DNA sequence: TTTCTGACTATTTTACAAATTCGGTCATTC
DNA sequence: GAATGACCGAATTTGTAAAATAGTCAGAAA
């Protein structure tokens, strides 16, 4: 009981600190202080700073999985589901403090652990998309293709439309993004010749 | 005559040095030495280091424009032309020493001038694609859409398929890239319902 | 007179050492 | 036996002296 409580205190303190200060600027002393725990106590649960960080990243990934699952409606068409899932995932991603902080830390300092954490989160999104694409292929909703390739492309396309484009073009509205996503990926740009 | 010659010597020396050592590690003394010219002479043609660098970047962009124009066959379909142009541009991009060096410098040191130079080159590619997309829309070859948006998406998709994907997936062959590019962008993933 | 030059200067970058901070340990405490 | 925080070596930061560099300009070369 006391053990469980201490572990939770540590995890909560770590989540708070990593979100607020990033990986590098979070010290084990600080985590201990926020958790009102001796520094040694942290090491009874996690063998080092990286493993503690991993735990926090994993919690975020789990949270994202729940969000995604909540958006799936098996009776709706694949592209509708895809749209809703990516929408909610990217909104979560752009609002979650830890992810914002890690992105900033990566840009500013290039901290490898921040990069790895973000990669794990991206990998989880792609893995999730992959299974949905596989399902859609089996259902005959989309043409046969490599789910990994298509998943990566989908995520990149979404990021391009929602974020990268804004450097060169006025930001697109939600409806525009939805329309372009469908136009490009689902229907294709080629003018039907018949 | 002597003036023209000196200017060319400076430009050639600068091109060589920026390609070999990047922006930061290229010194004006070194450029002068390679060009067999006094350092002051450089400043009679270019007001500072950044402007000299700009000249070199512009030469690369011009070269790329020629390469692209060489690939365009007005009698062929848009997607064939697009494929060939992107292919040759990205091959050029991945083999040109200046671009390789600037990419490395950006990754390694984050030199702002290297970043800006690469952005200009990318902007030129997108601008070129934009005009081609406009042409294709006018010809009725592709559906009406914002050429800027589509150009950015096309370039990003191509980079994803040729480079980014390799971190998570076995590299695709040239024919596979071509097939996915068409499948995704031109034909669309959605299974035709009739 | 005009063109070109490299020694010169002010500023930035680097190199290095001292001081500080930090991740991780472990003898002691509770 | 679980929890702690003083302690340790390694890593990072800081302060600063030395070196390098972009840009100038008085004077040499043409």
From TrEMBL, chains A, B:
<dbReference type="InterPro" id="IPR050624">
    <property type="entry name" value="HTH-type_Tx_Regulator"/>
</dbReference>
<dbReference type="InterPro" id="IPR023772">
    <property type="entry name" value="DNA-bd_HTH_TetR-type_CS"/>
</dbReference>
<dbReference type="InterPro" id="IPR009057">
    <property type="entry name" value="Homeodomain-like_sf"/>
</dbReference>
<dbReference type="InterPro" id="IPR036271">
    <property type="entry name" value="Tet_transcr_reg_TetR-rel_C_sf"/>
</dbReference>
<feature type="domain" description="HTH tetR-type">
    <location>
        <begin position="4"/>
        <end position="64"/>
    </location>
</feature>
<keyword id="KW-0238">DNA-binding</keyword>
<feature type="DNA-binding region" description="H-T-H motif">
    <location>
        <begin position="27"/>
        <end position="46"/>
    </location>
</feature>
<protein>
    <submittedName>
        <fullName>AcrR family transcriptional regulator</fullName>
    </submittedName>
</protein>
<dbReference type="Pfam" id="PF00440">
    <property type="entry name" value="TetR_N"/>
</dbReference>
<dbReference type="InterPro" id="IPR001647">
    <property type="entry name" value="HTH_TetR"/>
</dbReference>
